[in-house]
Design brief:
It comes from Tanticharoenia sakaeratensis NBRC 103193. This is Major facilitator superfamily (MFS) profile domain-containing protein. The protein is an all-alpha fold and 413 residues long. Helices cover 78% and strands 0% of the residues. The longest helix is centred in the middle third of the chain and has 30 residues. It starts with 17 loop residues before the first helix and ends in an 11-residue tail after the last helix.
Length: 413
């Protein structure tokens, strides 16, 4: 009977029955669909719906920005919560709670008549995104397969496709109904249903490597991993890439139009970035097991560095092409690469806590747009901010290149 390592199917494990394999595949599809909807219906759609909401709710743009900030903070600062819930009550109940919170958040948006309803919805959606998003998703993938690279790639590709589809879904629904509120009702129904289906799909699935009398999954103790320099280098690289991405998505259109590009052309470039993000995640999943997670992470950080530096240089067709290609591919790769590198170095036993800690710390990436905006106000342009981000990305790339694999403690395997 072939070994796990020899199999070309990351879920083809000889110890599993055909029924168990089918259940795991259904669970992975359900989680990917949920992540697709989360990416489509929250961050990537809100910016498109917001102008209409601002008009109808009589908000100023400061209030609109505050709600968007609550969405991000609600997502980032609650990152440890799903890990705690999954350890205590299991993945399925956590996903059920995610569905309830998401339904409540979208209902607040749909029924909002003032800033309070908008802010409450944003905060609930941030929490719901965390409960149903990448923390439980990567946890299930890490525990059901000995070769998770392709599964990670497929999962994050689904999210990237959601980022592309979200604005188009809104435009279609708003055109059909003539207003923005039905879109949020549709989002609430779709995400809540997907969360419940995912909960049923993951219920009863045992982790890969689990013995009949209990789990025997390899991995570092959490405290030992948190004390390892390699963990903090990985987290720094992930946070730096997110800071570059968040800052560039916040100001790219403005920066490009200030340099003479039309608004429509700038928007088209950002759409191309989203499409390339899906391509990058898919490629990372395909080649990740062959080239290794550290190589993928270096590629991602160098790509994000190139994206930032391309905006610090004079605008030419070459720099515009470099920006579109590197930001899209780099962002798609970094999600897969960072998750894979944590697994490769520290194992899957406590990956849930380690990935949650990385997501929590990466909330610092939200400082990128604020600092870039301050530099824009003081210097009259974004070039210096992008040059600084490029320098940070280059330093992180070198750190990943020089990073040594940590020596696992004897009881980690």
């Amino acid at each position: 009977m072939p070994s796990v390592a020899a199999s070309s199917d990351p879920l083809d494990m000889s110890a599993l029955t055909a029924d168990n394999l089918l259940r795991r595949r259904i669970a992975l599809v359900a989680l990917t669909v949920l992540y697709f909807l989360l990416m489509a219906d929250t961050f990537n759609s809100l910016g498109v719906v917001l102008p209409s909401m601002v008009t109808d709710l009589h908000l100023d743009w400061g209030s609109a920005g505050f709600g968007f900030m609550l969405l991000g903070l609600g997502c980032g600062l609650t990152s440890p919560l799903p890990a705690l819930l999954i350890r205590r009550v299991g993945t399925a109940p956590t996903l059920v709670l995610a569905g309830i919170v998401l339904a409540a958040g979208f209902a607040c948006f749909a029924c909002a008549s003032s800033a309070f309803g908008y802010d409450a919805g944003a905060l609930l959606l941030g929490l719901g995104f965390t409960l149903g998003g990448t923390v439980p998703g990567t946890h299930v993938i890490a525990t059901v397969s000995a070769q998770p690279a392709r599964l990670m790639g497929a999962y994050f590709t689904g999210g990237s496709l959601g980022a592309i589809a979200g604005p188009m879904l809104y435009l279609g629904i708003a055109h059909f109904f003539g207003t923005w509120r039905p879109f949020w009702w549709v989002c609430g129904a779709a995400t809540a249903t997907a969360a419940i289906v995912a909960a049923f799909a993951v219920s009863g699935i045992r982790p890969y490597g689990a013995a009949k009398d209990g789990p025997a999954v390899p991995g570092w103790p959490t405290r030992r991993a948190l004390a390892a320099p390699a963990f903090w280098i990985i987290v720094a690289a992930y946070t730096g890439c997110l800071a570059i991405n968040t800052t560039m998505h916040s100001f790219a259109v403005q920066h490009l139009t200030e340099r003479g590009l039309s608004h429509d052309r700038a928007a088209e470039m950002m759409s191309a970035v989203a499409i390339l993000g899906a391509v990058g995640a898919a490629l990372a999943g395909v080649v990740g097991q062959r080239v290794g997670a550290r190589v993928l992470t270096v590629i991602a950080t160098l790509a994000m560095t190139g994206a930032a530096l391309s905006f610090a240089l004079p605008q030419t067709p070459a720099t515009l092409a470099c920006f579109t290609l590197t930001l899209g591919l780099g962002l798609g790769i970094v999600y897969v690469a960072s998750a894979m590198l944590l697994l490769e170095y520290f194992g899957s036993r406590h990956n849930l806590e380690l990935y949650s800690a990385m997501c929590l710390i990466s909330t610092l990436a939200a400082l990128g747009p604020w600092l870039a905006g301050r530099l824009r106000d003081s210097t009259g342009g974004f070039e210096n901010a992008f040059a600084i981000l490029g320098a940070i990305g280059l330093a992180l790339s070198i750190a990943i290149m020089l990073m040594r694999r940590p020596h696992a403690p004897d009881h980690a395997a």
